[in-house]
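ok so i was messing around last nite and threw this chain in just to see what happens. nothing serious, just curious
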Amino acid sequence: MRLPSTTPRTVLTAGALVGLQGLAALTFMVLLLVRGLFGQSELGTNVFGEAAYFAVLTAGVLACSIGLVLGKHWARGPSIALQLLLLGVAWYAIGPSGRPEYGIPVGVLCLAVLVLLLNGRTTEWAHGRDEDDAE
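result:
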């Protein structure tokens, strides 16, 4: 499979980083399923329902990642929204939860993806004003 030649490296890199987030979500979902299958969940919690919820979220994150890597313009907006939501999660992990060892890496990754997706070249690409069109 050939990647579109007009897709900037910033978009491809952002797609790869969003893919890492999707793989992390997939790992969490599998761990939830294993926990539920071996009866290690707290009484009254529905681990399988939570895993199904994360399966839907994971599918969306991975779809955005694949879309960015393939150079699809539609994937930029949802990816930006995802990063903003995850920044809130990172803030909560750093502050109220007292788990900076989780929050700081998540926050740094989100900021890196946002910088890539809001880069001038990426914005020009998203609006369809590629250098190839100018020639």
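not much to say yet. The chain has a mean pLDDT of 90.
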